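Data availability (excerpt). The following record was deposited with the supplementary files.
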Amino acid sequence: MRLDLVFRRVGVCLCLGLSACEGSASLPTSNRGEGETLPAHLLTASEYNATVQDLLGVTSRPADYFPAVSASEFDANVGVLASLSQVQSEAVFNGARDVVDKAFESPALTARLVTCTPTSDTDDECPKSLVKTLGRRAFRRSLDAEEVDAYMAAYHKARQSLEMDHVDAVAHVLRVMLSSPSFFLRIERPGQGKSAFEAAALASRLSYLLWGSMPDDELLDIAESGKLDDEAELIAMTDKMLEDPRAQRFVSQFLGQWLGTVRLSSHNVDTSRFPQWTPAVAKGVEAQANDFLAGFVTGTTPWREVFQAPHPANSAIQPLLAADPTSLQRRGFLTLPAYLTLSSHSDRTSPTARAKGVITSLFCTDMTPPPGVITELPPQDGSTPKTVRERLEVHRRNPSCAGCHNTLDPLGLSLENFDAVGRYRTQDQGQPIDASGVYQGTPFADASALMPLLAEDSRLGECAPRKLYSFAMRRSLMPEDEPRVARFASTWKAGTLRELIHQVVVSPAFRGHAEEAP
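Predicted structure:
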């Protein structure tokens, strides 16, 4: 009998039956005077993919095909369960079926998941140990006795009514587990004592912050033992996790979302104008950006150096660096080909977008134009094409545009020596490029002279704590968060991101503890 048909007929009923009791707890979502639980949300696509890969050992990415869910900032998928569509429900169900089937096609992965064999048809010790072990990993917590009984009933039904052997019955139970809200939702159950949630939830908070995935057995063991209640132990575990290869997901999922490098794979480049932009170069550009950003997390480079830190070497991007003069030393995030490309149109540079990326992303300053303001540059007219600087000057004569452009244009035009894929150039439309400007009253000759001025801007050290705290708590900031992020900024002083992570993970809000009044 086909296992997918059996699962569709029997497994869904069991899943829905379990869901009724699992999702019924009313969890607090406010931190006013109490420890704070995270609002329940669906695993994001990247979280779902990483979780099934770590749980089952597969390389599949089923969530790439899930329906897109809207999100604001880092509060991804919050509250989606209340309006989970039929299409989304089916996608979760099909993802569970397909990824488990994929795992059990491999003898090696099967052996990794099914680690014992019953000694007889009446031996419950082996299947129960598997239910507890696999359920604990899948749900990121130990199963309740009722849950163990329910999944054991599913196992026995698979063996007896569906005539499955032991391995197929375990696969069936895994499918049901992965179709449960306890797997595809992050739900924090109420805790006891001073914490708002149970101990295992802190392990999940930490693992989804740093690894973008489920906690491993070691982390769950330490959390459930209570050792993470000690700040020194929590920081030591954080450092250990940052040294793990899985911490690269923090770079791509936090820094990549914040600074936009995750969009490189979908960014459109006009290769008829820029033939140097090949798939190999594009991959190299993304890899270099991730290596650069990782240095602030796992290395000793302080965040205040983000505008001036040296670039990691990457031979794949050499076609984009071939025109660099010997006197040019590319330094800092803004001269990475990744940033220069992302902040350009497919066929030309965009000084406004380049400047806005700094002001809004790195400085957390809103630059939303007023309603009705035209943001596009005026079209080329006349027989002589105008440079981007000349077209911006025309644009800035509009009083409704001048306010923002007087702030943005000097910064963006300083990068005009780099084209839409980050190659160095000296001319635009046959005219010499003028990269000079004035930043907050101080004149500069070019981008290299501007970067030290940007590094001294106090907003640089105030923005990162806001972004990291929002990412860690999986929600947009609220007014009551302002004192917290201000304290982070004042004590962190734009040091390494590792130091900022330490502050966030030991904060009462992240640990679910009530905060003392200031």
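Summary of structural features: The longest strand covers residues 437-439.
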